[in-house]
Amino acid sequence: MTNLVKYNTIFVETFEVSEDVLSGYKYQDTPSWDSVGHMSMIAALEETFDIMMDTEDIIDFSSWEKGKEILKKYDVEVA
Asked: Which SUPFAM superfamilies match (predicted)?
């Protein structure tokens, strides 16, 4: 399973959205991406990719696209 598949699966399962909306998906686009959903997603990402994100990165993680940029800082290539 590629990192992109893992990444997308976390979004689909956490926020209960279809994969086809992910490319433009942003924080609070759906009611499920609220503060609780955000932290659930962060926990899933940290566990899946065996990383620990800085608080600043957790706050800056505002969209599906931005998340891919942030994960690069932790040597997780999502392409």
From this structure: ACP-like
Residue 64 and residue 24: Cα distance in Å, rounded? 7
Is residue 16 within 8 Å of 32, Cβ to Cβ? Answer: yes
Residue with tokens 């940290």: 46
H or E element at residue 9: helix 3-15
Which amino acid, residue 25? Answer: Y
Q: What is the C-alpha to C-alpha distance for residues 49 and 71, in angstroms, rounded to an integer?
A: 9
Domains, the chain, ordered by start: 3-72 (1.10.1200.10)
In our burial notation (b when 16+ CB lie closer than 10 A, e otherwise), range 27-45 reads beeeeebeeebbebbbebb
Question: pLDDT tens for residues 35-72?
Answer: 999 999 999 999 999 999 999 999 999 999 999 999 99
Q: And the tokens for 69?
A: 């940029």
Rounded Cα gap, residues 5 and 61, in angstroms: 18
